[in-house]
Amino acid sequence: MNWLNSEAFTLLGQHIIWSDMAGNILGLITLALGWRRSLWTWPVQFLSGLVLFAAFYGHLTGSAGKQAVVMAVALYGWWQWQRDKDRSADGHIAPRFATGRERAAMLAAAAAGTVAVAFLFKAYPSLSWDPWPDAYIFVGTIVAMYAQAKGMVEFWFAWLLVDLVGVPLNFANGYAFSGFVYVIYGALVLWGMRDWWLRSRRSPQPVLEGAPA
């Protein structure tokens, strides 16, 4: 798998490597499929994680481990959407806004997770070059994927917050292709956010387990 870490081409003076390009193109497709509420978003997300896992395994074990977590969440998302897709008239999941309790839980998990992961990265420097922003992006990605799996409109806001740190961090670390892709992510996020927001207003809200009908 050494070819995944070799240079594909040079763009604006930046060296683009195959794994960076392939993984992020797949990630871009994943986000577009998520906008369309397609079940295929999760297999493509899994494939993106698998490509990056193969590129990092045996070379950057921490980065490989992060991709393993992403793949696990992708499997959960596929299972969740497969289960929920029949609850709406068009055969796709019905977007909804999170409840106040869900938002608080996700914010608390994101904050606590970022601190915990950052300290882990600082304790084992080989896991990350920039512990705090890297932890923020990693935990934010997991929270966003979880919210997406649950069909929450807030997942787009989570992705937007990840992008705000991901774009400058990728350019600073020499991953120019990731930086360019994150800019496109931002545009897709805004379009997807609007689409899910409007659909959530038209779709009947599902009754959550344990909540009064």
Description:
Helices cover 69% and strands 4% of the residues. By secondary structure, it is mainly alpha-helical. The protein has a two-stranded antiparallel sheet. A hairpin with a 2-residue loop joins strand 1 and strand 2. Helix 1 (18-35) packs antiparallel against helix 2, helix 1 (18-35) runs parallel beside helix 7 (176-202) and helix 4 packs antiparallel against helix 5. Residues 206-213 have low confidence and may be disordered.
- What is the subunit organization of this protein? single chain
Class computed from helices, strands and strand pairing: mainly alpha
Strand count: 2
Shape designation? globular
What's the alpha carbon Rg, rounded to whole Å?
Answer: 17 Å
Poorly predicted segments = 206-213
Strand content: under 5%
Give the distance, in angstroms, between the N- and C-terminal Cα atoms. 53 Å
User: Could you give the order of strands across the largest sheet?
Assistant: 1-2
Quick check: average pLDDT?
80
Helix percent reads 55-70%
Q: Give the H and E element order.
A: EEHHHHHHH
Number of helical stretches of at least 4 residues: 7
Sheet with most strands: 2 strands, antiparallel
Summarize the structure.
The protein has 213 residues and is mostly helical. The protein has helices spanning 18-35, 41-56, 61-84, 100-123, 131-149, 154-172, 176-202; strands at residues 7-11, 14-17. The chain contains 7 helices and 2 strands; from the N terminus they run E-E-H-H-H-H-H-H-H.
